[in-house]
Write a structure and sequence with these properties.
The chain is an alpha/beta fold and 326 residues long. The chain has two domains: 152 residues, ATPase, nucleotide binding domain (Nucleotidyltransferase, domain 5, 2-Layer Sandwich); 161 residues, ATPase, nucleotide binding domain (Nucleotidyltransferase, domain 5, 2-Layer Sandwich), CATH 3.30.420.40. Helix content is 41%, strand content 18%. It contains ten helices and eleven strands. A six-stranded mixed β-sheet has the order 10-9-6-7-8-11, with helices on both faces. Strands 3-2-1-4-5 form a five-stranded mixed β-sheet, with helices on both faces. It is globular and about 60 Å long. It starts with a strand and ends with a strand. Bound molecules: 5'-O-[(R)-(carboxyoxy)(hydroxy)phosphoryl]adenosine and zinc ion. The site of zinc ion has 5 residues, from helix 4.
Length: 326
């Protein structure tokens, strides 16, 4: 079995997974959303203190598995340095106490493996990752064969929902709040489609966010209509750029992962695209769209099977990581 730890942002989570059949034996997550909501976003120092309280509490419940563990997998990058550090310190302590190797897992690769919890890998597959920190299109062909087709020049998809929600006086995290409010509104406010005249495959959400700010300042429109119009334009940009990637690389399989893959309008629009371009569409189960340790355990198993352990002394946290360009 592998024990995994996730603390890259505001979720403290630990999982235990059987190596041979990828069965999830234990999974628990304590989210800090309520604590950060009053600040309208994640406060790194507060997040790190909350991880320091929550992780040992969850670990306590996994003691029965300790004798059967073969390795400790931990998210080491990318994320907030101070919160990643909490998970990595726990992994190092467990590694010494139980004499086990450590496997450092890239959180973004973890999101890809959220597709394969209790399942075998599907590859090759094009993956759209939409979370609070990232908006990327990746080509996945195994854990050591991932390349990047597109990324964002500025804000991420989820982040733009969080920021627009804050401007509208809604709660954090903003994604589900905007989605809920948008259902009561109409897409009738004209907003700019980002990078529509650029020939490249890339994302940008800061211009759209600023356009929403100006609309709010005009005080002419209902919040519901602003939410609906923003959400539709944000999704139109995702679809516009994904379509370019699909035309260029012609994937037979396509997946959407990350916290924002829970958005139902995103799923509806990509289902239309799947019909039009004749590819199979995949998502993680709803319970694994946001940050969790089950996906880290699943990616950890893949690295374990390839003997990709991380030397204790070289294990550091990295706020950013780069993928090879496709
Ligand atoms: O993957 P995740 O849990 O954490 C990161 O790795 O960033 O993603 C969280 C992000 C937040 O920005 C949140 O607002 C967004 O995902 N999100 C959504 C929805 N649910 C979560 N965005 C749009 N629509 C949603 N339903
Ligand atoms: Zn994430």
């Amino acid at each position: 079995m592998i024990l995994s730890i996730e603390s890259s942002c505001d979720d403290s989570s630990i999982a235990v997974m059987e190596i041979k059949n990828k069965k999830l034996l234990f999974h628990k997550k304590i989210s800090q959303e309520i604590e950060h909501a009053k600040y309208g976003g994640v406060v790194p120092e507060l997040a790190s203190r909350l991880h320091a309280e929550a992780l040992p509490k969850i670990l306590e419940e996994t003691k029965e598995f300790f004798p059967k563990l073969k390795a400790i997998a931990v998210t080491s990058a990318p994320g907030l340095s101070v919160t990643l550090q909490e998970g990595v310190m726990m992994a190092k302590s467990l590694s010494i106490a139980l004499n086990l190797p450590i496997i450092a897992v890239n959180h973004l690769i973890g999101h890809i493996y959220s597709l394969f919890i209790e399942k075998e890998e599907i590859k090759p597959i094009m993956v759209l990752l939409i979370s609070g920190g990232h908006t990327k299109i990746l080509n996945f062909n195994g854990i050591d064969n991932i390349c990047e087709i597109a990324t964002t020049l500025d804000d991420s998809f989820g982040e733009s929902f969080d920021k627009c929600a804050k401007m509208l006086g809604l709660n954090y995290p903003g994604g589900p709040e905007i989605e809920k409010l948008a259902k009561k509104g109409e897409n009738k406010i004209s907003l700019p489609l980002p990078l529509k005249n650029s020939p490249d495959i890339k994302f940008s959400y800061s211009g759209l966010k600023n356009a929403v700010r100006l609309v709010i300042e005009e005080k002419r429109y209902k919040k519901e209509d602003i939410a609906a119009s923003f959400q539709e334009k944000a999704i139109e940009h995702l679809v516009f750029m994904s379509k370019r990637a699909i035309k260029k690389y012609k994937p037979q399989k396509f997946a959407i992962v990350g916290g924002a893959s829970a958005n139902k309008r995103v799923r509806e629009e990509f289902e239309k695209l799947a019909k039009k371009f004749d590819f199979n569409l995949f998502y993680p189960d709803f319970k694994y769209t946001s940050d969790n340790a089950a996906m880290i355990a699943r990616a950890g198993i893949e690295l374990y099977e390839k003997n990709k352990f991380t030397d204790f002394k070289n294990l550091t946290v990295m706020p950013k990581v780069e993928f090879r360009k496709c």
